[in-house]
What does this fold into?
Amino acid sequence: MKSPENLKIIPRKLTIDLTEALKDKPYWLENDPVKTHFFNALQSAFPEGERMFIDSARDVRDRYSDQLSEELKEQIKLFIKQEAFHGVHHEEWNRALTERGYDKIATYSRWFREQRLLMKNRVPPLYRLAMTAAGEHFTAITARLNIHGDPGFMESVDRPFRDLILYHAIEEIEHKAVCFDLYQQAGGSYFTRVLGAVSFTFGMISHVRGIHIYLLKKDGLWNRETKKQARKEVWGRDGLVRKLLPDIIDYLRPGFHPWETDDRKWLLRDFSETLEEYGIEAPEYA
Ligand SMILES: [Fe+2]
Ligand SMILES: [Fe+2]
It folds into this structure.
């Protein structure tokens, strides 16, 4: 299995004033602090998380260059560009949160940066790439869930956050297999791929949980009711984990490839108007 012939990975620049947007709509997801802060917490890891992804892709590309196809090398360049542009938005988002008084976001980012640099020196590149491939799968299946698998979700997000989520979804879907293919072409083992996925999952859960609680506490909203709601939203019967679980388990199958599901068709069907409005070049149909 490989990427579709007509796949285009297009790095796009999108300008959105997040500081203003957060001022207008601090609880931009259904005016619900628990739901909104969950996404704020998730996104807060992305500036450093995506840098870690880029580091690992670069390091493996440079070390195993002879084994890689020219097509993949080109895709890696585009993947890095897309992630670098995303980084600008995530940074701004974090800055906007810090400015609103959530100062631990900045402290956390500094800590995460130290961890990333430490890992770069101490953890073998293929292992880091195994974590990255799992991270990219996670972002792609979350993107798919947001745009397609969870009817009504996109309508419940206030603009411009909805547009930002859509823009990221497009690009995360476009480059979803780049790190996976790089890992395979570099000769990464199945065992390490699974181990990388487990490490990524635990790391992410502990981070998101910690920041989610912090943001709610800071608003004076961490109480029995919100605790219960948070548990339900994440782990409950209709919660995020249950919705993502089939795709998470699928990743652990030995012959898995990210392009067994082509998500691009939903993007065009449901969002062509928004894409036009922003002048975002639409992905092609499968
Ligand atoms: Fe990204
Ligand atoms: Fe990504």
About this structure: The CA atoms of residues 8 and 212 lie 35 Å apart. Residues 50, 83, 86, 168, 172 surround fe (ii) ion (ligand 1) (CB under 6 Å). Residues 24-278 form a domain with the Ribonucleotide Reductase, subunit A fold (CATH 1.10.620). The chain has one domain: 24-278.
